[in-house]
Amino acid sequence: MRYAMVIDTKKCVGCSDCVVACQTENNVPIGYCRDWVVESLKGRYPNLEIEIRSERCNHCTNSPCVRCCPTGASHYEKGGIVKVTQNECIGCSACIQSCPYDARYTHPDGWVDKCTFCIHRVKEGLKTACVSVCPTNCMYFGDLDDENSEVSKLLIKRKFKVLAAEAGTKPNVFYLI
Amino acid sequence: MKTSRRDFIKISSLSLGGILAINPLLNMAMDSDDNLQDDNKIKQFPTYCEVCFWKCAGWVHTKNDKIWKITGNKEDQHSNGRFCPRGTGGVGMYYDNDRLKKPLKRVEKNGKQTFVEITWDEAFNFIADKLQKIKKKYGAECVALFTHGSGGKFWGHLLKAYGSRNISAPSYSQCRGPREAGFIATYGKGIGSPEPLDIKNTKCMVLIGSHLGENMHNGQVQEMSQALEKGASLITVDPRYSTVASKSKFWLPIKPATDIALLLAWIHEIIYKEYYDKKYVEKYTYGFEDLKVHVKNFTPEWAYGKTTIKPDIIRKTAKEMSNASPSVIINPGRHVTWYGDDTQRLRCVAILNALLGSYGKKGGIYSPEKYKVPKFPSEKYIKPKRDWRQAFPGKFKLAKLALASGICDATILSAERDCSFKGWIVNGTNLITTLPNQANTLKAIKSLELLVVIDTMPTEITGYADIVLPECTYLERYDMLRVAKHRKPAIALRMPVTEPLYDSKPGWWMARELGLKMGLKEYFKYENITELLDWQLKKIGSSLEEMKKIGVKTFERKEPLFYGEDEEIEFNTNTGKIELYSTVIEEIGFDPMPKYLAHPEPEEGFYRLNYGRAPMHTFGRTANNPNLFDLMEENNLWVNPKVAKEWDLKTGQEVWLKNQDGVIGSNSIKVRVTERIRWDSVYLVHGFGSTSNKLSRAYKKGLSDSELITNIMMDPLMGGTGMRGNFVTFLLKEPKNNKL
């Protein structure tokens, strides 16, 4: 099993619903976030192009954060979800430095926090909070090892990219372009 | 110096020694991620959202009896189980510790005006006494209600029982009014809300200045995404490269204020290239030949000179629409009070939909249905001797609802008027920013004898009130059922999730208590609103108990969703047809077919002030919401790089704006240099730049466009206030004595 998220930049309107849904679902404190929206603009008026992306931890198959964690708090869960065990984390921030996506932050209570792919929901057979809320339905979650899953099919059908491919982290969040 | 009676009082001045409220979310012991789904501690309650007018139905989830999150109800056609960012962030309204907490009364202490906290009983006694005095001296008709949101139903009922029908909402004359007037003139029926657009089945949608996706009309945004996925094309007309422009097959970066020229050229092209739906036009419309003659000279070449849109693009887009006909939507938009000829612009939109045969067809505009819920028994209202129309005799004849701006104008004492408004009840609308021309609004407020403001937040308007009544949020109260028209008729319940925080109360309770004080017992024959709701629900075969479990109940339609092939239809117009040539508009002395008029353009060094929405905020209502503030805390001023170069402006730099009338905005705004905006205009998101310092987050964050909208272009047909004829220039240093 290999959990992945596929995000369709052609449908995303950048409304940030994913951000606030994550915040309430996961009790992320005000002033912090586990996901965020990036807009990149190309061209000169009136020949323009925008790409809008909802970004988060890429749950990399080759995660620098897991590798560098001195206590083992950062670890892989079933399906490749990268997770931090809160009471094993000493807040040293090595993982924050190692992450090419800037996906982690230090929680005011001391541990390092980030996207969990809503593991508590996934275990119940639900989709992540961000995927469930998205008004444009531009986000998909599923198992890449299952060739019949929605995410697998989309990656066969559509052109896609990953972020910071050059870092060699083998990210599991894919952007349809 | 003597202070005038109605100086703005900063509510904060009385919060000395107040309770230090702590956001319970932050205070709550953090669950570890694994325990988030512990069902034992989780409950859910039905609601419909109050963060915007779309009123999506959903569920409020509590954990350990504390409000946790809000999600959509899957049965609901407004949300389809998915809330927008504002609805998801609705929890922040409850947890916002800047909320109004106690009833307040304006008093004078040592020559200075201030608010003191009073009891609810004292507040109601004061208001009842004042209202009776106004009734005796001037007549009940001299009291008006301005309202936005669900509580308005109760206040409207109270006002009608008291003897006035002057119930107005800025959502009409400052927003969608011209659209309603334009469509009623054409089809005998307005568009209404939510708009009955069959977006999910459309093959082509045209958006004129409407920035869907940035204005987060939930169901519409969802359906637009579905349509795009199915290969529908979008044509977006906007001087700004909006988000939806970036999703469009055609983006037409039009010169601002020239939309009617483009629309007339499209009508020309569709008629003369014979793209129109001949059978539909022949069967259902009136005045086609007149229209054909009228648009003869409005060629794409003619329009190019006005709009800067190239003729071949006008032709290609007209073809694109006709290829999709009848599954095409020329979207009527929502906020359409722009240049004062707005009803006529919306007439063009209505005409285009008729020519392409989309009205009443799949992928076009459907016929919505609403469920009839019986009214709870109440004494009959007294018919007032006069209503809002008498305030402006002979004017705005197509207006169907009271004009908020008109009532405001008719409050200012004038020799021409035999009666001015003396009392205002303002429910949930911050008139200081929702009405244009603030100086005018303040003048009206100063001539009032009573101003009561009901709100959840200490917005600017509360500072001018005699009495402030703190309403609890929608998460803490019942309201009337949501009975909305949609593809299928449906009802939705809102129920309280928890007891109201502080000393805040629901609108239904306030209106009833005040009604009882005023001797209007016969209009409030219930002790609790639950009695009323249960009575209504039982009449339609449901019950409060059932609705608490399901939240939304959907019923079957009585009539088909679309017109049948060759169906005989009588439209509610003079001719019984869709009027391409409007007999009603001709009767009241205006152009029966729309004409293009050139509007003023900015002088050198000035730029057209354009404003719009961001998906994470609803006007100024959400600016202080902690969750939504977190997503966007201030607005920026979009400036084209060419303009930025000329003025040496950099992204992030603070500027002040001065408009054509010399009015300077009270806050500064940070520049955002971007290719997404034309060189002849600047853009900012509406709803920021609060001047109420009790809004601890929103205070002085960004700039309020409303302050700079002093030139109003009135729509003579229905009284809409066109607000896009204002021009601004940059001040690079903070101006001295900068007070509004």
Which spans of chain A of ≥5 residues are poorly predicted at pLDDT below 50?
A: none
CATH architecture of the domain at 186-368 and 569-587 in chain B: 3-Layer(aba) Sandwich
Give the count of helical stretches of chain B: 22
| Percent strand of chain B | 15-25%
Q: The biggest beta sheet of chain B, please?
A: 7 strands, mixed
Structural account:
- The complex is a heterodimer of chains A (177) and B (740).
- With 177 residues, chain A is α+β, with helices and mostly antiparallel strands.
- The model of chain A has no long low-confidence stretch (mean pLDDT 96).
- In chain A, the strands form four sheets. In chain A, strands 8-1-10-9 form a four-stranded mixed sheet. A two-stranded antiparallel sheet of chain A has the order 2-3. Chain A has a two-stranded antiparallel sheet with strand order 4-5.
- Chain A has one domain: Alpha-Beta Plaits, CATH 3.30.70.
- Chain A is built from six helices and ten strands; from the N terminus they run E-H-E-E-H-E-E-H-E-E-H-H-E-H-E-E.
- Chain A is 20% helix and 25% strand.
- Chain A has helices spanning 17-25, 64-68, 94-98, 119-122, 129-133, 150-157; strands spanning 3-8, 36-44, 47-55, 74-76, 82-84, 105-106, 112-113, 139-143, 160-161, 173-176.
- Chain B has 740 residues and is α/β, with parallel strands linked by helices.
- Among the domains of chain B are: 186-368 and 569-587, Dimethylsulfoxide Reductase, domain 2, CATH 3.40.228; 607-731, Barwin-like endoglucanases (Beta Barrel), CATH 2.40.40.20.
- Chain B contains 22 helices and 27 strands.
- In chain B, the strands form seven sheets. In chain B, strands 5-4-15-14-13-6-7 form a seven-stranded mixed sheet, with helices on one face.
- In chain B, helix 8 (259-272) packs across helix 12 (311-324).
- Chain B is globular and about 70 Å long.
- Chain B starts with 23 loop residues before the first helix and ends in a 9-residue tail after the last strand.
- Chains A and B meet through helix 1, strand 2, strand 3 and helix 4 of A and strand 3, helix 7 and helix 21 of B.
